[in-house]
Amino acid sequence: MTRAQVPVEPAAPYGGSAAQWREYSDALAASEAMGLRCTEIEPGRARFAVADSVWPLNPAGAVHGGLVAALADQALGMVTMTVVGEGQKPATASMTVEYQRPARAPLTLEAEVSKAGRTLVFVSVLVRDRDGKVCTKVTGTSVVDGTSRRMTTP
């Protein structure tokens, strides 16, 4: 993909309503490509839904683990955006994924900030399968200083 083909992301609705944050989240190119929809959002907490896998299912008939991790990373970044200052652009610094059972769609992702500091935000994401059982646990850290603060929005 050339630079000219990279989609321009919408501006984050800092100070906006929950409806504006849901609309922003759903309009992000990665969210659209993965079929990730924000169903609830407030500062430090968010819930997302994925109706079906955009990738072929794995041999066990479940959503591929790489896609589950990518969905969790998107949820992690989105919930981080709700607790950082306007103009800050968080980036995932680390992420640990624990696969506990097959991720059979539809999936629900519950993201929650456990601690937000000046430069780091710690987040947990629970991924639930079609039966509401936790299939994947994710913990991650976003950095909100350093290179992310020097990024500009086109």
Features:
154 residues, alpha+beta, Thiol Ester Dehydrase, Chain A, 6-stranded antiparallel sheet, 33% strand
Short account of what is shown:
The protein is of the alpha+beta class and 154 residues long. A six-stranded antiparallel beta sheet has the order 1-2-4-5-6-3. It has three helices and six strands.
Topology summary:
Layout lengths: L17 H10 L1 H6 L1 E7 L2 E6 L14 H17 L9 E9 L7 E10 L3 E9 L5 E10 L11
Antiparallel strand pairs: 1-2, 2-4, 3-6, 4-5, 5-6
Give the averaged pLDDT, no decimals.
91
Order of strands in the sheet with most strands: 1-2-4-5-6-3
N-to-C SSE series? Answer: HHEEHEEEE
Per DSSP E runs of 2 or more residues, the count of β-strands stands at 6
CATH superfamily: Hotdog Thioesterase
- Whole-angstrom Rg: 15 Å
- Count of distinct structural domains: 1
User: Which fold name is given in CATH as the topology?
Assistant: Thiol Ester Dehydrase, Chain A
Helix percentage range: 10-25%
Please tally the helical runs, counting DSSP H or I stretches of 4 or more residues. 3
The share of residues in extended strands comes to 25-35%
Largest sheet, in brief, is: 6 strands, antiparallel
Oligomer: single chain
Strand-pairing-aware structural class: alpha+beta
Task: Specify the overall morphology.
Answer: globular
**CATH architectural group:** Roll
Text of the CATH class: Alpha Beta
What is the distance, rounded to the nearest whole angstrom, between the alpha carbons of the first and last residues? Answer: 17 Å
Question: Spans of 5+ residues with little confidence (pLDDT < 50)?
Answer: none
